[in-house]
Amino acid sequence: MLILLYDGVCGLCNWSVQFIIRHDAAGQFHFAALQSELAQQLMRQHGLTPNENAAPESVVLIANGQAYTHSAAAFEVMRRLGQPYRALAVLRVLPRPLTDWAYRLVARYRYRLFGRSEACMLPPPAVRARFLG
Prior knowledge:
The chain has 133 residues and is α+β, with helices and mostly antiparallel strands. Helix content is 43%, strand content 14%.
């Protein structure tokens, strides 16, 4: 099972989850808001420090017992979505410090650029079973 932990109140993150749902024909991705207790528990299990007092700075993809964060998570999602998105994962050849820097830059300004909601989104009934916690 692939579990994507995302910032449930971030406009960009919610758009990304909707994008993944639309392009994940196999239904392989499941989702949990970083603000949920399940996500906090999964982060601790994978040696990541949940920060409940500040806005999360990264999505986390848990795949086959491994946790991917920052740009690595984004590239792994693209790879697993298949073509044409898999082709974008070629950017993984760029140095990780550079791709993580770009990722963190967008993450830092995501609320200003894409908005913030007061509550996590309510998933549509057709995909509600893919949302955990």
